[in-house]
Amino acid sequence: MSIQPVTHTRLHLPDTTPSARQPVRMVARNLQASETLAAHRHAWGQVTYALEGVIRVTVADSSWIVPPLRAIWIPPDAVHEVITLERAKLRAVYVHAGAAPFSEPQCRVIEVSALLREVIVALEQVEACSRRETLLSALLLDELGNAATLPMRIALPDDKRLRALCKLLIDAPSAIATLAEGAQRVGASERTLARLFQSELGMSFGEWRRQMRLAHAAALIARGMPMAQVAAELGYASQSAFSAMFRKTFGQSPSRFFVRQAGATP
Known about the structure:
Oligomer: single chain
Mean pLDDT: 86
Helix content: 25-40%
CATH architecture of the largest domain: Sandwich
Low-confidence stretches: 1-11, 260-266
Largest sheet: 6 strands, mixed
Strand content: 15-25%
CATH superfamily of the largest domain: Jelly Rolls
Structural class: alpha+beta
Number of strands: 12
Distance between the termini: 27 Å
Shape: globular
Radius of gyration: 19 Å
């Protein structure tokens, strides 16, 4: 689960800026593992989606791990960084601020329906400024506005010691089993770290780790990894323990959830 040093790739091109007349534009890039788009901002919103591969998006105090069945909406003016965790067919859909499908100034992870996926694929092939681009853009915005959202956010702290611990676990979820072990790794007391989790993130270490594991689980299962191996990768003692956590969050077992999702995507 560790991430290798990254290289930098610029994804935005000047002629793909959205406008009131052309509210949806797209940039398509096929990237290698461990490439990154350094932190930046722009006046339009963005749907970041990988047809294949897994990406990690960081915005301010949060990080998201986004597998192919998911996309992330990044609102206008949000400073964001994108890293590919494996080879990815990245599709960045730019949306003019006046046509943004969500009014809240927060990022959100959304389910990518079969229709939304095919519209994105079609936009990649359409002629710019054509009637077909206009129709596809309207359909994409409507589908985005009706997409289900998922609790995939990983909160990030400001404190350097706590942030180091969180980064360690995001890169390798099974690296430590207890907060006491984490305290030894980052040079802080267990009591101090427990206090910082509450004061900076508003949750316990266990609650934060559960969110982080859920974000990783979606990516691992999307790759076709067996449930028992997913549980081991995330540091669970057994597959049943992992399934119980997943069921508590999503209301159904991971196998049932992802069978349903796979059936929705060609």
